[in-house]
Write a structure and sequence with these properties.
Blueprint: E1 10-14, H1 20-29, E2 35-39, H2 51-67, E3 72-75, H3 78-91, E4 96-97, H4 100-110, E5 115-120, H5 122-127, H6 129-137, E6 142-147, H7 151-156, H8 163-178, E7 183-187, H9 195-201, E8 207-210, H10 211-225, E9 238-242, H11 246-257, E10 264-266
Parallel strand pairs: 1-2, 1-3, 2-9, 3-4, 5-6, 5-7, 7-8, 9-10
Helix pairs in contact: 1-10, 2-3, 4-6, 4-10, 8-9
The protein binds D-glutamic acid.
D-glutamic acid binds near residues 14, 18 and 124.
Length: about 270
């Protein structure tokens, strides 16, 4: 990790818009850090793709961001974190953090009875990565998982509330309700946009864990420990890339970030 520069940006990526929840948490916690975001809009959703394809897309983006001179890579996608983190870490010469471990830690800290629900994409749930991360921290935790493949397209379409997402949420969350989970991990970075709908479909006392905040704290800790925090008081730059339809990405990203001006550059891979 020698030779990394404190003033360099942090790279953040996701299959689409979901990772913006992580970008927002990073910007709130560390306004002085510059951030480069990559949304792989050409390949979203990752959740229904094969592990090989997910690993390939993720590695290409990691390589692209590394080429932009980043000092830390945040894999702001649960699906990539579940399936590609070891490969990305092995290839990278910079520190890399994912969203699964921070989410698992956050859930166990919030849970009263150790009955944890995990919702995520098909690929994330199938990988068993959350169950493994939770059990590594608390052997006797009871974990109930559910894949929710329709949530990502709903978020990418901007359908964050109303009849349709509510009906879909009730159906997907029924097994978690039956298992009487006390805490639910939003195991996909798109899901925080559906938080209200999800909370309504669950018992009011169930805690929802959004791994974005936990991940931002972990990023801050890693940078601080490596002496790589940007000087406090400066204002970090933001740069956005999308692998397809950058204008559409820009329109929805503005709504998600609530920010006025931003320019999204197109960057496609073969
Ligand atoms: N937002 C991503 C995740 O956290 C990926 C969703 C998808 O592309 O299927 O898993």
């Amino acid at each position: 990790m020698a030779g990394l520069n404190k003033n360099a940006p942090i790279g953040v990526f996701d299959s689409g818009l979901g990772g913006l929840t992580v970008l927002k948490a990073l910007a709130r916690l560390m306004p002085e850090e510059s951030l480069i975001y990559f949304g792989d809009t050409a390949h979203v959703p990752y959740g229904s793709k094969s592990p090989e394809a997910i690993a390939r897309f993720s590695s290409e983006i990691a390589e692209f961001l590394a080429g932009r001179g980043i000092k830390l890579l945040v894999v702001a996608c649960n699906t990539s974190s579940a399936l590609a983190l070891p490969a990305i870490r092995a290839a990278a010469r910079i520190p890399v953090i994912g969203v699964i471990e921070p989410g698992a830690r956050g859930a166990l800290a919030a849970s009263r009875g150790g009955r944890i629900g995990v919702i995520g994409t098909e690929a994330t749930v199938k990988s068993g990565a959350y169950v493994e991360a939770i059990k590594a921290l608390k052997k006797d935790a009871r974990v109930t998982s559910a894949a929710c493949p329709l949530f990502v397209p709903l978020v990418e379409e901007g359908w964050w509330s109303g009849e349709v997402p509510s009906a879909v949420a009730r159906r997907y969350l029924a097994p978690l309700k039956r298992a009487r989970v006390d805490t639910v991990i939003l195991g996909c970075t798109h899901y925080p946009y559906l938080k209200r709908v999800l909370a309504e479909a669950l018992d009011a006392r169930v805690r929802l864990i959004d791994s974005a905040e936990e991940t931002a704290r972990e990023a801050e800790r890693v940078l601080r420990e490596l002496g790589l925090r940007a000087p406090i008081g400066r204002r970090g730059r933001r740069e956005f890339y999308a692998s397809d339809a950058p204008k559409r990405f820009q329109r929805l990203a503005r709504r998600m970030l609530g920010s006025g001006t931003m320019r999204v550059k197109a960057r496609a891979f073969e």
